[in-house]
Amino acid sequence: MKKFLTANEAAEYLGVSRSSLVSWTKQELLDGGTTPGGHYRFTIEKLDSFAAKRGLTIPAKSETNTTKILVIEDDEGFREFIRDALEAFNGYELRETVDGTQGALMTGTWGPDIIILDIRMPNMNGLDFMKFLRQNPASSATKVIVASAHLSPELKNELENLNTDIILEKPVRLAKIIASVQKLANLELKE
User: Are residues 103 and 160 in the same domain?
Assistant: First the structure.
């Protein structure tokens, strides 16, 4: 393999867009060198380190037959609750974001199988995220569990019309999260 990758090659390696890669480099989140002509260059080691720190799975290195679960939730306590619930299973990969905007970006770059979604969040709320998700052909069939403490009858109706797979009202019992994920993902429970 080449010692240095161009911005296009590095973006392909990470499974992200070139613009995301350049943005991260300009923000000094990703360490990349530049040529005398101002072009970015990256080493595999730096890309691997960046991916590990940011929780990115490099597509070429990711396991097959793993269910990808994305949690979009601004409450750290509830994200921890979900992590605890998912420990009951084998064969999944988990990623988390704190708002719908980050969730939309991660959905586009990572392609989760299941999304566990809150409704009230900063930047892009859960309902707007669902509309975005269902309008995008690449993600329109993604399975979604909505868990929210703010579910009016009107909101439930809107979510049902957007083909939300499971709607849960917070507070949610651990067993209900486990059962909901198992229903959608058909994951094996740990012994």
Answer: yes
For 57-114, write each residue's pLDDT tens digit: 776 554 446 889 999 999 999 999 999 999 888 889 999 999 999 999 999 888 999 9
Contact of 85 with 145, CB cutoff 8 Å = no
Rounded to the nearest 10 degrees, what angle do helices 44-54 and 7-14 cross at? Answer: 40
191 occurs within a structural domain: no
Give the range of the structural domain holding residue 82, as residue numbers without chain letter: 63-185
Last residue of a domain, one of 44, 59, 74: 59
Q: Kindly give the residue spans of alpha helices, DSSP state H, lying in 40-172.
A: 44-54, 76-86, 100-110, 126-135, 153-161
**Residue 158: HSE in the Cβ half-sphere, 13 Å Cα cutoff:** 13
> What's the predicted TM-score (pTM) here?
0.67
Asked if residues 18 and 8 have their Cβ atoms less than 8 Å apart, the reply is: yes
Query: Tell me: the pLDDT tens digits for 141-174?
Result: 899 999 999 999 999 999 999 999 999 999 999 9
Domain count, the chain: 2
pLDDT, residue 2, reads: 47
- CATH number of the domain encompassing residue 148: 3.40.50.2300
